[in-house]
Amino acid sequence: MIEKLEEFLPLISKPARYVGGEVNGLGKDWASARARMALAFPDLYEIGMSHLGLKILYHIINANPSYLAERVFAPWPDMEKEMRQRKIPLYSLESFHPLGEFDIVGFSLQYEMNYTNVINMLDLASIPKLGAERGEKDPFVIAGGPCSLNPEPMADFFDALVIGEAEEVILRLLEAFAEFKQQGRRRQELLDDWAGVEGVYVPSLYEPRYEGKRFCGITPKRRAPERVKRLWIKDLDAAPFPTAPPVSFVEAVHDRFIVEIMRGCSRGCRFCHAGMTYRPVRERSLETVCRLVEEGLAKTGYETITLASLSSTDYSNIEKLVGRLSCELAERHVSIALPSLRLDSFSIAIADRIQEVRKSGFTFAPEAATDRLRRVINKDYTEGEMFRSLESALEAGWDVFKLYFMVGLPTETDDDLAAIAALVEKIRALGRKARGNRFRANVSVSAFIPKAHTPFQWENMVGEDALRGKYSAITSRVRSRDVKLNWREPILCLLEALLARGDRRVGNVVYEAWRAGARFDGWSSELRVDAWRTAMTSCGADFGQVTDFAYRPEDSLPWDHVETGVTRSYLIQELEKSRSEQFTADCREQCLGCGVCGHVDLSH
Fold first, then answer.
1. Residue 161 and residue 82 share a domain
2. By C-alpha distance, which of 336, 328, 330 is closest to 261?
């Protein structure tokens, strides 16, 4: 294998993506492992090497002497072309074993627009793409990640999916496989066993029902549970965490040591999939975070640490943590990054403290530009509060601001669109007054995409032409050279919605799009709109499924058999509150009865 790679790797872009051998990479003995798992990330090496979940599973599996985990990422088109021409199967970075020789191939489903890469990686590995086509000698193909909370669009391609936080179950799945292999049992018997494990969904044991084009529900077969319950890590302090992850040769997107300080969010934004499905909030203790930082820096050599969570300044000990780490790391020239900040004076003060040497861009996401529409989506600040915080940030020395807005939100009006442009211009005027010619604003606009397990899962999104009209309504009003406007292509947003809310039939569209040449669909340079339109036509699908077809609260939804802990009644209540523009408080201030805390012991 290595000799074949040496023939052409110097001719392709960034060959270091494909050779392994990184610091902290693990090469365990292949022959002695009772179960061998390939951790497959369906995007570029630089993206996958930045993903904390993959590092956690790599650490957990390899820390067990009985098992082995190796990494594989999606090859860029130039590498794929060479592999196909030279008949080189997709291989792991640690041992260069072809994926077809592993016992289990586990995909991380982080983003719907990576679905065609999953199929492409299976094809490059010569593993049958559909679960129903795999035989006794083929690897088991499983998946996990946030997209698995609606498993149906990709259900036919996987033998099993982990619903929720895989740290809780991955070793149990490997042990069940090792026993199955030792006993010489049949493939279906292991799938039956896996279906009995809480948090594991085996699609072949469920039958979707339809009436014409309408989805009507899913019926379990044999002993499969009617509903699959999501898994939670109960205590982050006790959870395994990697302090010696592989350090990439190619600069990763997040080229730093990452410590997860908190999991979950209590803010309750009604459009936010992560905010609803990662509930409840769980924190690592101050002492544990500081210990992990010290160990990680010693074993990786990074010069930046990230204190990661969905909303880092909501961490209850954030002031003490930042104060302690700032003192300890400043003299070692190690910087601290907080990727998720609220737009308030407290967050700005914290950010100012950790960026005393160099101010990077200050990012905030108003999402909507009017107080009314922010109440609809449950964003808990007014325009007055926003500008007081912006003034604080400007006084603290920030020159570059990054703003994020959504268009097409439920109840949006023309006035709400005009308000985005007006708000951007007001921010520009404030910035120019405070920072002069140094001020810059980068404004990103995207379409609202309804996601499963959120209060807005019943809402539709607007169509392609309407989206272009909304973008134009904003861009025509913002003409300043020091404001850079960009937006996501409407077709990309609509495709994401189709895949996010689809039922099992959408898998046919993904497969046909792949056959027509779709790869790396989340990359604007690679998106093949023609491939997707051809696939939708051949499968009888159209965007009316997300723009015209309205789910009702009483309807069966394709993801109803997945139980996240947040009750349907709570989501409906939040939907109704959005329509009456009522705000819901932070659930750490008072229990809102969403249902999730009954599943997790929060006594710690």
1. yes
2. 336
